[in-house]
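User: Thanks for the earlier help. One more: NACHT domain-containing protein. Can you show the sequence and predicted structure together?

Assistant: Of course, both are below.
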Amino acid sequence: MGSIRAMVGVRLEDHNHLKYTLAVTRVGRAVYIKVFSWGYKHGNTHIKDALYTVTNYSTTQFKKDFNTTQRKKLTENCPLSKLDITLIFRLFQFPVLCGLRPGDDPVWNSSDSLEYCIYAIKERRNELAHDDIEMTPQDLVVKLEGLETLLRKTIEKASIAFNVESSTVSSFLQSITTQLEAIRDAPVPVATKEEYELEMRASIKSQVMEEGGKESVEMCSRTCQLRVASWLMSGRAVDPTQVYANPTIKRDHNQIQQRQLSVSESQVEVCDILRTGQCDGKRPQVILLSALSGMGKSSTIKYILSIVQNDRNDSIKGTEDCDLILYLACRDCVFSSVEQLVASLLPRTATRFQPDQLKFALLSLDLLIVLDDLNELPDTSLCLLVEFLKTVSQGTRLLATVSREKASSIERMFTPQHITLLLDIEGIPEEQTFTFLQRTLQHYIVPQNTITRGNNDLQGLLGLVTSLRPHLRDHLRSPEILSLLALSWTHTLDPIITSSTVTEIFMLVEDLLIHKVLLNLPGFKLLGISSHHTVSSKIERFLLALSGVAMECIKRGKYSVEVKDIEYLTQTCVDLDLPQDYMISAFLNYTYEDNNNGMGVAAPASPRQSVSFPRTSTLHFYASWFVLQHLKDDDVSPSNTIKNIMGLKQQELSSTLTETQILSFQYVMKYLVGMLALKLPSQLQIRTKEIIAFLKELGVSRASHWLEYIEEAKVEPTLTHLLINEEIGTVWEVENSAISLTFLDILRRIKIPDHLTISTGLSWVPSNFPHLKEVLEVCKTSKGMKLSLHLYQHYWLEKEQVSDDLLNILTRGEEEGVCQLESFAGRLSGSCIIHLPTTHLTTLALQVDMAMMTSLNTVLPRLQHLYKLCLNLDFSPETVEPDRVPHLCINNAITSLSVDIWKVSAVSVGWACDVAQALSKVYDHLALRRSELTAHACSRWWVSGLQVRGVTAASLVIGSIRQATDKQQKRLLRDAKVIGCGGIPDTKDWKPTEEALLLALNETEAIEGHSGPFESKDVIADEPLPSTSAGSDARPIPLTRTHDEHAPLPNFGGRSR
């Protein structure tokens, strides 16, 4: 390398080396081209196409056999004259092309073979890469003579191998001699100097790739480590590939809306980030990964780098064409020139080359530049980076993480010159949670520093996360927060696993955020310990101001922060000597705008900006914290009520607050109860009656909601006693997240209700309830309890799992004194259906397929008190023949029948009518779900088909993806009377007003709201409700929504008929 750096122009002592270089590269390549053209067996077929004639030859193999430049030449079908010695030599090693032996055959080392001659020419070319070759005039003569001998021998052997005419061979042999003599005797022209310089530049480029590649790998191994909660783990770091779980990554929200992308079209896999194009198919040069803090931006790029640098096995697609991958963490990074930028990317390599040499080499390479926290760059450095990208090769790409609040402004900086793709990381999906927690506990934890726990700990931790997910959706998608939960649990003597509430998790999360804010505060790391305490105190005072703003937002019924509030927070930062933009953007979604300078530089807060809390739950939490701080004052009096502290008037809340505000205050009170239980238990006890009265004013009345407040209060005795004995009563309806450890504890230790309804919603998989089985075990032994169990996800959606294990808990043993199962909804196997408890069951809802029908008919005659049977049919024309469908063994005078049939089209409507007839002639409720029928088809084929077959139905539901006018709906309502449905007034002037259709469509209300009885006897449900406008009959109205329209089941309280 030293000889290259010292060189100025072409010296006299270089002439002989230069001539020999030209002889090998020019004449040697000519020999390669001639031999290849003689031996090529595929005529006019392109070389790449010929390669693919090899059995099982694939694109993956093609990528392994040839580098980026070589693949490009072969793909573009470059002529032989454009191929270099290295590439042609590689092609010789494929027998399919010229018939020579494979590259691993020993014949390539045999001096008598054509293959060896070809290999020897390649070796002569390789010798030229060494800088220590020096030639005297005598050396040059000897070298050229040896080269001529080798080249002539190669041509002669090739002519024999490929049967070439002697005249052609003689002519080419003479040209070899002529060219070599001309090179030996020629002066060194300017053009040749330029060619030599190109060789030197190529050599420097190759060395930069080699040196830079090594440095990049070493840098990634040092910096691409993941750290969580350093105050817990003492700086422990792990390889990203050990703990990483694939997050949900979506295209920018604006793209999704503008293009109306489906879920699959909007999502991007981690392995596809670098090859994902814009919606119009264009390949982006700049890819920005945006997310809220802690959602996995840095983890994602570190994972990508770790995979690519250490594996390169195509796990991450789109890196195949990169010559060099560079990484830079932008926090605390500043550069004011291109040379400083290059030195920041490759600090060690920069010391081994002249700045111009390194810059020229990098600009000629196809780079992948990976930047973490791009938004942390100062404006001048960011602008310089944008300009730098204008000068790089077209194949160079930038992958960077940005904060969500700055994503749009940074995207606008790149957009004018570069195709830019903005992607949002939304955290870890629910199905990846178990994998992530498992890896976290396996790789972060140092065994000797942790508390020993049992083998079921992971399931327990997963159960905690699952039970809290409905309340902490975004938080529990954050890998940072999930890791913190796992580590906090593992490193504490009083594990949070058995007692954590939503409020406790929020407080843990906010501690993490405050710690991050402190660590990243400019200059904080340079301060002493006493100064650390001072800064922490200032941040606490800032948070008090922020909590006041949160309360004002809720009172206004808005989640956005008004300008006056931003000005207040800004002044608070000034008074506390805290950086205002940094503090506000750390705790709020702070959308930056261009400052009219054309460069997209972040501007101070202005009336045009949108500032909001990152999540509604965060807003509620800080509003609760505002009340808590005021209750902590020593002079606070019980007469100073919570409503007064919130600034609410004493009059009836229902008349002054909107529904949204009332719901927000319910959440605020939930977190406040949790905070009081943890921080001010005496205040919670003193104010119990006040809190309950306030919650009743806010509309809290259901057992599920009261149980959540009991849980947040950690089952504080005073509050628990008042709620259970005076508010909840003896009839409990417990659903979804309220089926918790706290609920189980109440059943075991405090009270058993007379009548208990347990329901799991459509989006709640029963297996995800960690305490449901234990709850049922308690119910089973509760003498006299009337129980209803409704597993709606199993009833409506599930196609694989069954509810057998849950029902078996209640039926196993059948000992005296067990609870009375009055109502059940779910999906059971045939063997479990036969063993349904028959004594008290009054309502039954099952999703059934043909295999279950025999078992169902076996048990139906024994259900003497059954007054309601609901069946969700898992039938299709492809799998079920109507004549094989058994008639249901029910007494229609006693048992009302409700049946749902799915995805009926014009082709299968006759089949649906036959199925309905086979099951029963009398229905209380008959529904089509997600059908493809028009209103005309419904009347002509569905309603008429039922009539012809003698089927009657007191009510119909018709859900369709088709449109219907008001006139068609009115006609449909009238036609339905022929099968027993009640009609509407048959008057000439009748028009479908909202009130009239609401009465006719109360089924729709039940479906949309997931509640309410299916009791109407005169219903044809067309969803959604039409407008109140009664003007034009031609206005299209959908018969139903195109999304999920599942409804909970009616009257599952177990009451008598």
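User: Great, one quick takeaway?

Assistant: The longest strand covers residues 397-403.
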